[in-house]
Write a structure and sequence with these properties.
By secondary structure, this protein is of the alpha/beta class. It contains nine helices and nine strands. α3 packs parallel to α4.
Length: about 250
């Protein structure tokens, strides 16, 4: 299990990320640090294997931290959480030492999957794919790929983090029917698995207008607060205190 630390100055983002990591199967969530007050050495001392750095309201500081973390320890994997895949900022994040970039538009329920697949090299945001204008090349829309309304609905549920059994229950169909539709979706999108379909949906705006308040960038449900330059969950699970992980008000 990878040990994850999150660098963000947005309390709402804390709640969204916590919701996305609630199953605890792939990552041990150590806690949160304020980018304006923390340092690369403090982040290294948490013992994190992975650091998720939020672009937040201070992208320049985020880039500085990525570079400093990489200089402090080349063994820490750094993932940049960005609002948009703008050419210059993505290139700077990679140049500073980020191993991958994840968009804030993803549903919290899909965060752990995206993060794990990105770290395993199955999702690649290559700076070379971004043109000189800073724009990402256009990809076919769902309509252009001739997805049926049923397939589009299933794709949105998959991208929101739903399992096949949950999709079957919600749509009143069998799991075998879900698998049948997924095989058609994969073929039409030109992807080989669930992660590829999920990535396509989020990157191409297929989730627009669907559960808009549940995206990482818009999440408001989690209760969290930044405290004294470190971060603590209010009634939550973990906090970084003096650079070390400690439980706060929640015994497992």
């Amino acid at each position: 299990m990878r040990r994850l630390a999150v660098v963000t100055d947005n309390p709402m983002m804390v709640g969204a990320i916590r919701a996305g990591m609630c199953d605890g199967r792939a990552f041990e969530l150590l806690g949160y640090l304020d980018p304006k007050r923390t340092t690369a050495i403090r982040i290294k001392d948490t013992g994190a294997d992975v650091v998720l750095v939020d672009e937040a309201s201070h992208p320049e500081r985020a880039i500085e931290l990525i570079r400093a973390i990489k200089e402090a320890s080349d063994e820490i994997a750094i993932v940049f959480l960005a609002m948009q895949m703008e050419g210059e900022m993505v290139e700077r994040a990679f140049d500073a030492g980020a191993s991958s970039v994840i968009l804030k538009a993803i549903h919290p329920g899909a965060l752990a999957t995206f993060l794990e697949e990105a770290l395993n090299g199955h999702i690649v945001h290559a700076p070379a794919a971004i043109g000189a204008s800073g724009e990402i090349p256009e990809t076919p829309s769902a309509e252009q790929l001739s997805l049926t309304p049923r397939e589009l609905g299933i794709l949105r549920l998959v991208a929101a983090g739903s399992a096949n059994s949950e999709i079957a229950q919600q749509l009143w169909i069998t799991r075998q029917t879900v698998k049948f539709h997924l095989s058609n979706i994969y073929r039409k999108l030109g992807v080989s698995n669930r992660t590829g379909a999920c990535y396509f949906a989020h990157l191409n705006g297929i989730m627009a207008g669907v559960d808009e308040d549940a995206g990482l960038a818009d999440a408001v449900g989690g209760e969290a607060a930044l405290v004294g330059g470190e971060a603590a969950l209010v009634g939550g699970e973990a906090a970084l205190v003096g650079g070390e992980a400690a439980l706060v008000g929640a015994a497992s």
